[in-house]
Amino acid sequence: MTVSRRFAQVDVFTAIPLMGNPVAVVLDGEGLSDAQMQAMAAWTNLSETTFVLPPTQAGADYRVRIFTPKTELPFAGHPTLGTAHAVIEAGLATPRAGRLVQECKVGLVDLTVGADRLSFRLPRYALTELTDPEATAWINAPVKGAAQAVDVGPVWLVAEVDGIDALENLAHDEARLAAFYVPKGMTGATLYAAEGERVVVRSFAPGDGIPEDPVCGSGNGAAAAFRLAAGQVGDGDSYRASQGRQVGRDGWIDVRFEGVDIHIGGQCVTVINGTAQI
């Protein structure tokens, strides 16, 4: 038997509808089975679909489960911001002193709610150097230094491409990338290039049915952790990254550093409000 459930689709990392990265949000997911959640995520065919549930941990304002079309994720960036935006709009949670706490599989995630944007603090991250040349053999562009496996909940292969033009016009082998990262249980690859104040990011997860993620929060968090570990940025620094133009979007991601803490933020806009029959 199907139930009518509140539903929203939110564009993240933009204030302009259709120019960011959409996330589908089922606002009353209680009572759905794992199989139903996965089926809904496959049906929306977005990079992620989330399900809002009552919290189970003290201090959390709500709980969220995050699914790609093929699997559940312990954490993801743009679904975190989009879900928080939808939860606030629906009146399911009210920020206290500009703060919300989200519960997900990776644990509790702190969010800051501003006048026109939200941000989250990466709950944790760890880096492991990738010495296998296959880690970057799929990239037909010059790469600076070694790639890293950056664990931010999802595990991203992160590498720095030498030059923004080389990244924007990247030629790459999707099959070779998937053959490298999928057997290792990784999420995909995030590449970035920086020239002065300008930072451009691209994220790929072809093994999960996502040839290119339009604007990726966890991927940008992984790139930020890579840059922090490499000494390219430090405590008190901030920058704004661009992502999505290669797939017809125009996303902007705000990155801020407080000691070893990394904050990822941006604007959100609701494109669809309604109900889903699940």
3D structure, described in words:
Helix content is 20%, strand content 42%. With 278 residues, the chain is an alpha+beta fold. It folds into two domains: 4-121 and 266-277, Roll (Diaminopimelate Epimerase, Chain A, domain 1); 126-262, Diaminopimelate Epimerase, Chain A, domain 1, CATH 3.10.310.10. It has an 18-stranded mixed sheet that branches.
Write the layout of secondary structure elements.
Blueprint: E1 4-12, E2 21-26, H1 34-44, E3 49-53, E4 62-67, E5 72-73, H2 77-90, E6 99-104, E7 107-113, E8 118-121, E9 126-130, H3 134-137, E10 143-151, E11 155-161, H4 164-168, H5 174-181, E12 188-195, E13 198-205, E14 210-213, H6 217-229, E15 238-243, E16 251-258, E17 261-266, E18 268-277
Parallel strand pairs: 2-3, 4-6, 11-12, 13-15
Antiparallel strand pairs: 1-2, 1-18, 3-4, 4-5, 6-7, 7-8, 8-17, 9-10, 10-11, 12-13, 13-14, 15-16, 16-17
- Overall structural class, as computed from helix and strand content, comes to alpha+beta
CATH class of the largest domain: Alpha Beta
What is the fold-level CATH name, i.e. the topology of the largest domain?
A: Diaminopimelate Epimerase, Chain A, domain 1
Number of domains: 2
| Low-confidence spans | none
- Gyration radius from CA atoms, angstroms: 18 Å
Question: How much strand content do the residues show?
Answer: 35-45%
Average of the residue pLDDT scores = 96
CATH architecture field of the largest domain: Roll
